Amino acid sequence: MLRRRGIRAVIPERTDQKANRVRRGQDGGRPPAFDRDLYKARNVVERCFNRLKQFRAIATRFDKLAARCRAGLHLAALILWLREPRQDHLSDTA
Description:
single chain; elongated
């Protein structure tokens, strides 16, 4: 489904799987490639989802209406953002 939508999988392959693909050559499927920078971006997104799922209502999707579920996501994201320690470098100069 991802390939049909033009989305590349950014999952590192295990070394045994990569070696098997290389050994099989043309019949091995997609070439073993891994983009480290894209994986870093994917990791950030996955960590964000994991932090959002610490809210029980988000993890189990209590809300039946999409608008309420979206509102819950916004509230959870806001709470997580407000919990973050400030990284304001302007206060150091004052």
